[in-house]
Specification:
It comes from Rhodocytophaga aerolata. The protein is an alpha/beta fold. It has 4 helices and 4 strands. The protein has a single domain, classed as Transcription Regulator spoIIAA.
């Protein structure tokens, strides 16, 4: 069983190239290479990007840094990126205790 799921749904109209990127499962260091490649590709190809985190089993600092970096990269290229973050209570509690309670707001 794969421990990460990546779904890409492009929406191209006459003015803007948009994409929804859904990430599920374990967003951890061992999956960082695959995640980084997908995010870089999407930033190159699309103008408006929505990243949705859902059904997250595990989330570590490496993936949090990737999402924050993606946000900065998109902004520097005058592209729009937003994140929809749904995290289980267990992960939210750990993030609060680790000083990352503002993570969802940081990526929006």
């Amino acid at each position: 069983m794969k421990n990460i799921q990546i779904s890409i749904t492009p929406q191209i109209d006459e003015h803007t190239k948009r994409v929804n990127l859904t990430l599920e499962g374990e967003l951890v260091l061992k999956n960082l290479h695959e995640l980084t490649a997908e995010v870089k590709d999407i930033i190159k190809q699309y103008d408006e990007i929505t990243i949705e985190l859902k059904n997250i089993i595990n989330l570590d600092l490496a993936c949090i840094q990737l999402l924050l970096s993606a946000k900065q990269t998109a902004l520097s290229q005058q592209k729009r990126i937003t994140c929809k973050v749904e995290l289980p209570v267990e992960i939210t509690n750990v993030m609060e205790h680790g000083g990352l309670a503002d993570f969802p707001a940081m990526v929006n």
